[in-house]
């Protein structure tokens, strides 16, 4: 029997989850056994109504568990909002962040496990077991990390408020990952990286998703020391973010919102990146990437459905295996 291809992916929410679904679909269709470990960003985590909410962990879990709201890309399919409707007249909570009933059940379960003394990694494994996920899902750290945004006027707010309520309309001066310096990689994270055949960066936000994971002490060092090549998929196509407001995040680092700009930032700021997929529209960046020591491929990168996403994942794996 062929040994499975051991892949580690550093993932944010919607973009990462869609890519992972495509990766698994490719493996099943191509007959390639995969052993996938997902290290998910927890910098977006927050407390609401006393519940611990982990947006990126839940988006990956719901997507790969087959219960994601396809229309939204996050939250549960066939959701109900009875609790939110009852809370609203009391003036409790945030009007811009509505929790559905099914989603609340997940947060209740997680919070009860955490309050009983379980670390986030153990609570995540318990929740993921319900959905019989085809991956090992790990938080980047068991210690709490929260991404805050310092606006140009000096006001500070949680990243989710800036992202969801303001839609990144207020210019950000910088992002502050509160608690990241005291955080440590969750159990299993470093072992997965050390044992990987390939490390992938899905098209997640390079600043506040992948960048936050890389900010946990020990993770970037482990990736630099790993034998596995590290290959990423550009979240920028034709100078615009595939999803969300990544351009606003990149601007805080003076990084150009281009396919090459993101790749070269991974290379210069983190000392990482062996290969990079760009969209056909950005094929002109391949020479610049090659000059920086990054192998590149140009392919269609719009993840319009599972089949097209599987083709993108296949190209990322192909590039990575060619670099081993």
What do these coordinates show?
Its EC number is 2.7.8.28. Keywords: Magnesium, Transferase. With 324 residues, this protein is α/β, with parallel strands linked by helices. The chain has helices at residues 14-30, 55-64, 82-87, 101-115, 120-131, 159-165, 189-194, 210-215, 219-225, 246-251, 259-270, 286-291, 306-322, and strands at residues 5-11, 34-40, 46-48, 51-53, 136-139, 146-151, 156-158, 172-178, 198-201, 230-233, 236-237, 240-241, 275-278, 295-298. The strands form 4 sheets. It has a 7-stranded parallel beta sheet with strand order 5-2-1-9-10-13-14, with helices on both faces. The chain has a 3-stranded antiparallel beta sheet with strand order 7-6-8. Strands 3-4 form a two-stranded antiparallel sheet. A hairpin with a 2-residue loop joins strand 3 (46-48) and strand 4. The mean pLDDT is 94.
């Amino acid at each position: 029997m062929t040994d499975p291809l051991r892949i580690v992916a550093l993932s944010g929410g919607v973009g990462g989850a869609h890519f992972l679904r495509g990766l698994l679909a490719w493996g099943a269709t191509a007959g390639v056994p995969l052993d996938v470990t997902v290290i998910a960003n927890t910098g977006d985590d927050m407390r609401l109504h006393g519940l611990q909410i982990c947006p990126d962990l839940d988006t990956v879990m719901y997507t790969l568990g087959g219960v994601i709201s396809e229309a939204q890309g996050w939250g549960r399919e066939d959701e109900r909002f009875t609790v939110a409707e009852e809370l609203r007249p009391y003036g409790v909570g945030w009007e811009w962040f509505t929790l559905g009933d099914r989603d609340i059940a997940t947060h209740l379960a997680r919070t009860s496990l955490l309050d009983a003394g379980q670390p986030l990694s153990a609570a995540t494994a318990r929740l993921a077991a319900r959905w019989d996920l085809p991956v090992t899902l790990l938080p980047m750290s068991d210690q709490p990390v929260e991404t805050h945004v310092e606006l140009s006027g000096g006001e500070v707010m949680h990243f989710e408020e800036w992202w969801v309520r303001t839609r990144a309309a207020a210019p950000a001066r910088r992002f502050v990952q509160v608690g990241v310096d005291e955080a440590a990689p969750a159990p299993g994270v470093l072992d997965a990286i050390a044992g990987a055949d390939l490390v992938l960066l899905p098209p997640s936000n390079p600043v506040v998703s992948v960048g936050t994971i890389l900010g946990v002490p020990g993770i970037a060092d482990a990736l630099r020391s790993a034998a596995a090549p590290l290959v990423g998929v550009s979240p920028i196509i034709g100078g615009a973010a595939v999803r969300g407001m990544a351009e606003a995040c990149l601007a805080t680092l003076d990084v150009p919102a281009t396919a090459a700009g993101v790749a070269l930032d991974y290379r210069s700021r983190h000392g990482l990146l062996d290969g990079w997929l760009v969209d056909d529209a950005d094929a002109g960046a391949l020479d610049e990437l090659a000059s920086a020591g990054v192998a590149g491929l140009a392919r269609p990168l719009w993840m319009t459905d599972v089949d097209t996403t599987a083709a993108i994942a296949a190209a990322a794996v192909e590039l990575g295996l060619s670099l081993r």
